[in-house]
Amino acid sequence: MRASIIREILKVSSKPGIISFAGGLPAPETFPLKKFEQAMIEALRRDGTKALQYMVTEGFRPLKEYLCGWLRKQRIQGTPEQMLMTHGSQQGLELLGKIFINPGDSVLVEDPTYLGAIQSFNTFETKYVTVPMDARGMSPEAVEKALQRRPQVKFIYVVPTFHNPAGSTMTLERRQALIKIARRRRIPILEDDPYGLLRFKGKPLPSLYALAKGRGVVYMSTFSKLLSPGIRLGYILADQEIIDQLVLAKQPTDLQTNTLIQYAVYHYCKHGYLEKHLPLIIKDYAHRAQVMEEAIRRYFPRQVTFIEPEGGMFFWCTLPENINAGEVFKKALKKGVAFVDGSVFFANGGGKNTMRLNFTNCTDAAIRSGIQKLGGVLEDFIQGPGSR
Amino acid sequence: MRASIIREILKVSSKPGIISFAGGLPAPETFPLKKFEQAMIEALRRDGTKALQYMVTEGFRPLKEYLCGWLRKQRIQGTPEQMLMTHGSQQGLELLGKIFINPGDSVLVEDPTYLGAIQSFNTFETKYVTVPMDARGMSPEAVEKALQRRPQVKFIYVVPTFHNPAGSTMTLERRQALIKIARRRRIPILEDDPYGLLRFKGKPLPSLYALAKGRGVVYMSTFSKLLSPGIRLGYILADQEIIDQLVLAKQPTDLQTNTLIQYAVYHYCKHGYLEKHLPLIIKDYAHRAQVMEEAIRRYFPRQVTFIEPEGGMFFWCTLPENINAGEVFKKALKKGVAFVDGSVFFANGGGKNTMRLNFTNCTDAAIRSGIQKLGGVLEDFIQGPGSR
Fold first, then answer.
1. A326-340, pLDDT tens digit by residue?
2. Quick check: A36 contacting B, CB < 8 Å?
């Protein structure tokens, strides 16, 4: 059901003439076409047939070695043996679900949480313990309380940095407290970090994995938001024991992640292109986020509150409680603007008065015009039509 | 368990100095490096950022249109709406398992059958109804008998053409009879056809899908054996209703198949390169198969029988009943030759006296020398050591 709702939203959003804040697509203008082509040619010419042959399920070792070095700079310590290359982060979620969840098991998630995670975990007939979050992330006290009622959760799934959909970032204190709680109860934390490096405001914070020195934390990330989502390349860093299980789970799923893509991305990284490229994306996103923020402040009724993101790709808005974002969506679409009705991100329902706005896939002009139109629709809902 | 056995076999087989008939790797010499590079550059230059962006789960429509035309020449009729692009055929098996199999359900498979299929279906706690096969494929009478005992099977999984591991091809009469049985009992047939175009002997036979005009047959194939396995690109052709379910099953699994690869393969195909390339692979495999066949006839004891393949990548050998192929494997490895102990391909056990030999990943000299050594080991087992 949920899958079909979001597919429906994205389908109508992609119609010509619609300004869409609905998707979660990175800005195509930031894709490094030339450099990636060079890396691809290098893979095909230098590595030759190896780049087109089957390879081990674990992934391409030189790329994993590069990534371990890259992560070390973020104080994330791990070895290539602790890493599995996946067909995007989405596959990482699916594989983790496969090894951790039996039908009827519970997992703890933020409310709201990443829709793709709900979709993956649903495959395993998962139940959800949901914990509310705010601009500072999920509250550890709320986690503690939830676990007192439901102590048997299989893991805690969390997107601590530049949350999708909520745009929020968990504070250092909350990170430390969460690790403490999880460790005391021996519950693994699954840290999903696709956006962590896309910070355009504020000071960098260590990941949960870095803070916990890897103990009890499974770390996931991806090239989707740094290089290209179409190449489907993500990775998981975890205890080797977990990785061994994931490898056995991945083998029947698809044998291995794309060989050629792994070789090409390796060459791309090896030349330092990823490091050089990152600031360009951040600059671009900082700009678009600012344009959207200014537009929201200008055009949205003051009753609509929002979380100001310090990075990532999303603004999260909360409407007055009596306003239904699903109804707003229908009206907005008629005016040519789309977004995602935030309720789809609540694993156990709720959030009817929330909206997710993506800012990385529209021009400045489209952002301004779309937010202005959406502001008008919201005004009608809040003040009654014709009030302006 | 089974997964770890085969991983172990492949690990020892890949040691330097070992002549390996163990893997299922296509000949790297046949990978069209230059043309594929050209297609890749075209994708990145012409399609630009679209080739690196997210795309719909269903797959790249122009590629699906090309494939429908390509399949039409094999009398396989279908529309792009009836096709899903997968991350290799292995993912196709997983997704089909997901939508068809509930824990404890049975599926009917050939004995032996493709190991990757067993591994995928095992994920869903599948039970197997196994039907023996010979050089002419699975016998319809045996299928009928098996279904009388266990009528509730969810589908019939079959590799009718150039079987892996058995190298055999189901005759036209048997194909027709199998379709009749399946139709009468309303059991879907899952036709796995990775090698169908790699015929180097005998006359082409229509696929089950073609014979059944698609009714009741799900057809799967892949670019792995025609272009490159490392690019992980396969497809499923089926009733649109099944495809719709597969799309919903794929979304939480990995969102979509690689965009860039789909664009590049489209350009590769569009230029007619696939058609031009195919005869080169066939010629290469015909030659290697002949070298292996001659070597087997020359060096194997006459008590060892084998199926003469008309295409594909494998020879299947049957030893006298009292000889254990696992023991032969150990001795052969000491002499520097590896193969796969055929028992791993039997879903319910058995086949202890069978061996699978791959001929597509060794030079002529290695094939001759490896078969000679293996012949010596077999001689020792059959005649007793030192008999020569």
1. 999 999 999 999 999
2. yes
Q: B121, B101 in Cβ contact below 8 A?
A: yes
Instruction: Give the mean pLDDT of chain A.
Output: 95
The H or E element containing residue B211 is helix B208-211
Give tens-digit pLDDT for B213-257: 999 999 999 999 999 999 999 999 999 999 999 999 999 999 999
Q: What is the pLDDT of residue B173?
A: 98
Binary contact (B254, A52; C-beta < 8 A): no
Q: Which residues contact A67 (CB under 8 A, 6 or more apart)?
A: A83, A235, A269
Of A219, A241, A271, the residue at which a domain comes to its end is A271
B120, B232, B261: residue with CB nearest A252: B120
- Regarding whether A95 and A55 lie in a shared domain, the answer is yes
Task: Report the complex ipTM.
Answer: 0.95
Q: Which of A3, A251, A258 is facing B258, going by the closest CB pair?
A: A258
Residues B323 and B339 in one domain: yes
Predicted pLDDT at B112: 98
Probe site for chain B from A36, A52, A96 (most B CB atoms < 10 A):
A52
> Smallest Cβ distance to A52: which of B55, B123, B228?
B228
Q: Do A230 and B29 make contact, defined as CB atoms within 8 angstroms? A: no
Amino acid B385: pLDDT: 67
**Does the pLDDT at position A7 exceed 90?**
no
A43–B contact, CB cutoff 8 A? no
| Amino acid making up residue A180 | K
Assess B365–A contact: CB distance below 8 Å, yes or no.
Answer: no
Task: Convert the pLDDT of each residue in B145-192 to its tens digit.
Answer: 999 999 999 999 999 999 999 999 999 999 999 999 999 999 999 999
In a domain, B40, yes or no: no
* Contact B17/A at CB under 8 A: no
* A254 vs B3, B51, B88: nearest CB: B88
Q: Give the three-state DSSP class for A212.
A: coil
**What share of chain A in percent tops pLDDT 70?**
98
A388 within domain boundaries: no
Task: Tell me the DSSP string of B117-145.
Answer: HHHHHHTTT-EEEEEEEETTEE-HHHHHH
> Which are the contacts of B117, defined by CB distance < 8 A and separation ≥ 6?
B93, B109, B157, B192
By residue range, what is the domain housing residue A369? 2-30+276-382
Asked whether the beta carbons of residue B122 and residue A261 sit closer than 8 angstroms, the reply is: no
What A273-280 contacts at long range (C-beta under 8 Å, 24+ apart), as own/partner pairs, is A273/A32, A273/A35, A273/A39, A274/A70, A274/A226, A274/A227, A277/A30, A277/A32, A277/A35, A277/A226, A277/A227, A278/A197, A278/A226, A280/A30
For residue B245, the distance in angstroms to the closest alpha carbon of chain A comes to: 11
| Number of domains observed in the structure of chain B | 2
For residue A33, the chain B residues in CB contact (below 8 A) are: 44-45, 48-49, 52
> Which pLDDT tens digit goes with each residue over A31-66?
999 999 999 999 999 999 999 999 999 999 999 999
